Amino acid sequence: MINGKRIAVVMPAYNAEKTLEATIHELPELVDIRILVDDHSSDQTVNLANRLGLRTFQHDRNYGYGRNQQTCYREALAAGADVVIMLHPDYQYTPLLVTALASMVAYDVYDAVLASRIIGGRALLGGMPFYKYVANRFLTAFENLFLRVKLSEYHTGYRAFSRKVLTELPLLENSDDFVFDNQMLAQCVYFGFRIGEVSCPTKYFEEASSINFRRSVQYGFGVLATTLQFALQRMGLVHLSRFSDKGRKLEPVYPDYYVRAGEGVRPA
């Protein structure tokens, strides 16, 4: 807990067996709820998650990164979390920053906090492919221009949200694919939530998950489309459910496309 707020870490996983244990061992003790959602992996991710004492859920097929996050957030809210940190279990981001991210939300400094790989200028030193770095900088500049905010990047997979953000955003209107991340931040800006950032080192290595060039291009076009949709909505030229307070929000019912694969007990 921090400031009386229950802290949850959620991990959207797909074939994370090789890196999951290292990620879990660096989580700080203040984390109250540890959840892993497996998107129908072909390795032993689920069995390992259960051995590590995580609350584990498994999709009945591979639905995509966005749908995985929806499950993560739904289960964190159901478990009573006040602050939810989304951390990839591929050990690309250091779990040691959970305390910093959670504190900024728990003390009501921000509603959402991003762990930026760009602040500090060490992304390339950490192994980020050059084409991904260039694309990151271009897309971020484009988004800052149209969203009228100034973030160092929108594309990190390490982020914290308040319970209010997760219950009020129409998250079910977003994509099941990777662009979900970007759509969610655009929603945060549109609905007036405060977004902060902290510097985060990153490391790219063989076992760390990373989308390929084709999927990266697809994601990039999705980001451009989301940004333009945001701008058109602001101008009143379109009316999208993604940016409507009547859009579909995370429902409290238990969906039939995933099961609870293990009720982990936090190890001593």
Question: How would you describe this protein?
Answer:
With 268 residues, this protein is an alpha/beta fold. The chain has one domain: Spore Coat Polysaccharide Biosynthesis Protein SpsA, Chain A, CATH 3.90.550.10. It contains eight helices and eight strands; from the N terminus they run βαβαβαβαβαβααβαβ. The chain has an eight-stranded mixed β-sheet with strand order 7-5-6-4-1-2-3-8, with helices on both faces. Helix 7 packs parallel to helix 8. The longest helix has 22 residues.
Share in helix: 25-40%
The N- to C-terminal Cα distance equals: 17 Å
User: How would a textbook summarize the main sheet?
Assistant: 8 strands, mixed
What characteristic shape results from the CA principal axes?
Answer: globular
CATH level-1 class: Alpha Beta
Q: Number of DSSP helices?
A: 8
Number of domains: 1
- What sequence of helices (H) and strands (E) makes up the elements? EHEHEHEHEHEHHEHE
* Average of per-residue pLDDT values: 92
How many DSSP E strands? Answer: 8
Taking all Cα atoms into account, the compactness measure Rg is: 17 Å
Q: What is the CATH superfamily classification?
A: Spore Coat Polysaccharide Biosynthesis Protein SpsA, Chain A
What CATH architecture would you give? Alpha-Beta Complex
